[in-house]
Amino acid sequence: PLSLLRDPSLLKTDGLIDGQWVTGGGRFDVHDPATGRKLADVANLGPQDAEAAIAAADRAWPAWRTKTAKERSILLRKWYDLLMAHQDDLGRIMTAEQGKPLPEAKGEVAYGASFVEWFAEEAKRINGETLPQFDNNRRLLVLRQPIGVCAAITPWNFPLAMITRKVAPALAAGCPVVIKPAELTPLTALAAAELALRAGIPPGVLNVITADAAQSVAVGKVLCASDVVRHLSFTGSTEVGRILMAQCAPTVKKLSLELGGNAPFIVFDDADLDSAVEGAFASKYRNAGQTCVCSNRFYVQDGIYDAFVEKFAAKVRTARVGNGFEDGVNQGPLIEPAAIEKVQRHVDDAVAKGARVLVGGRRLAQLGSGQFFEPTVVADATADMLCAREETFGPFAPIFRFQTEQDAIDAANATEFGLASYFYSRDVGRIFRVSEALEYGMVGINVGILATEHVPFGGVKQSGLGREGSHHGIDDYVEIKYLCVGDI
Ligand code: ADP
Questions:
Q1: Ligand 1, atom 25, residue with closest C-alpha
Q2: Is 218 a pocket residue for ligand 1 (Cβ < 6 Å)?
């Protein structure tokens, strides 16, 4: 699939330190999850390279932070224009290494690029404050200054957007970055970095350390332990988030964490049934269920339960599973064998505890790499099932029945996670009551998709710290400095 790129020079396989492509000692393979075929071998960089990238970023910092906001804005805008100009190629690279259907991949390119556009604009609005004085011979000011060298460790499910959502606000604020992309999807990250160079982002301002799973752990330790790195942003599992948080404690590093979710999707009796079915499908089956905001648990009220289950199952039966490069496919492969095993474990556990399979339930072993799972729906799910507690991160929709509004709220909140939540209701009082009662960072009401660049994305409880996107997305990359000027 990569031989069809319009601009083959976007296919980079080395890391990027101080504006130079770095081959490294070893290499690691990147595979196409749809076919299992090797796509490329990529530089397997390690702790010394991470140190070099941090040093390069530190050297680049003074000149980057003293550029005017408008100068940084113009460079970011050029990067955005190049990302969009190469949307097709970036989409192809993404589908090849990540598996999501090509139209969805191109959609992510536009979504990922939109953060660069947004923060190019926000770069010009990092305003300070003047405060009323408490004494007439003083003046009180607040500056917002770049925090310093930033590190970003990113996941494979959004190979571009999870990078730009962190890197664009950092660069806008005047901070250089060291990126450690997911080992399963480094090619999209490197192509984006190549376009950043073409846009004129100076050497050392944006560095990429590619590494396999083992070296990623070692590189992560260096990024966390460094005194020069003042901020770490991570998107990935809660488990790894906890490790990184502990590793950042000795240097009291500022952290942005976007971790696991366990999103509830509640359908009340007064919901618009067709709209709820559409929203449920969009929310569950985007990226074959591999997003942290995908609905994990469907709670449907008794009065509408049978109708919803029937319509939703019919909708899921229309899903087309296959290689993401094939026309009409809307369900690609899962990222790796472990992902398939987890979905199967959740489905089997639900069935063993009394759930009724309506659609799917099995792995499609005869298709491509064998990493495809049938879009699956079960009814009669109960709270003792694994799928009630753990994030499945795959194409499995368990449907639970509930009676009262309070029951739904209690069930939805009975988790240590608090990222996205969704509910369908036409009752204006209920919309406010339930929105306020849900312990989540984001609530979708009568919608199944809610992310965009100018809204604050993030979670509460063990789903993370901080918000990405929107004007709040700059906050983690600036420090507030109070100036008290006397003798006026
Ligand atoms: P996922 O559940 O999305 O696979 P992970 O949390 O395992 O997420 O991985 C997300 C990112 O974190 C990847 O870039 C991966 O290489 C990196 N990573 C995983 N474990 C560690 C670790 N112990 N230290 C640093 N980075 C890690």
A1: 220
A2: no
Which pair of structure tokens corresponds to residue 189? 């990250």
Cβ atoms of 259 and 236 within 8 Å: the answer is yes
Reported for 273-277, long-range contacts at CB under 8 A and 24+ positions apart, including other chains, are 273/304, 273/307, 273/308, 273/311, 274/311, 275/424, 275/446, 276/308, 276/424, 277/308, 277/311, 277/312, 277/315
Q: Is the CB of 243 under 6 A from ligand 1?
A: yes
258 assigned to active site: yes
Q: Identify any residues that bridge with 22 across adjacent strands, giving them in sequence order.
A: 15
List Cβ neighbours of 3 (8 Å cut-off, separation of 6 or more): none
Q: What residues are paired with 206 via a beta bridge? A: 177
Q: Report if pTM > 0.90.
A: yes
Would you write out the chain's pLDDT as a tens digit for each of its 488 residues? Answer: 788 999 999 999 999 999 999 999 999 999 999 999 999 999 999 999 999 999 999 999 999 999 999 999 999 999 999 999 999 999 999 999 999 999 999 999 999 999 999 999 999 999 999 999 999 999 999 999 999 999 999 999 999 999 999 999 999 999 999 999 999 999 999 999 999 999 999 999 999 999 999 999 999 999 999 999 999 999 999 999 999 999 999 999 999 999 999 999 999 999 999 999 999 999 999 999 999 999 999 999 999 999 999 999 999 999 999 999 999 999 999 999 999 999 999 999 999 999 999 999 999 999 999 899 999 999 999 999 999 999 999 999 999 999 999 999 999 999 999 999 999 999 999 999 999 999 999 999 999 999 999 999 999 999 999 999 999 999 999 999 999 999 99
**ipTM for the complex shown:** 0.98
Mutation to probe ligand 1, out of 157, 166, 216 (largest number of atoms < 8 A from CB): 216
Q: Cα–Cα distance between 417 and 383 in angstroms, integer?
A: 16
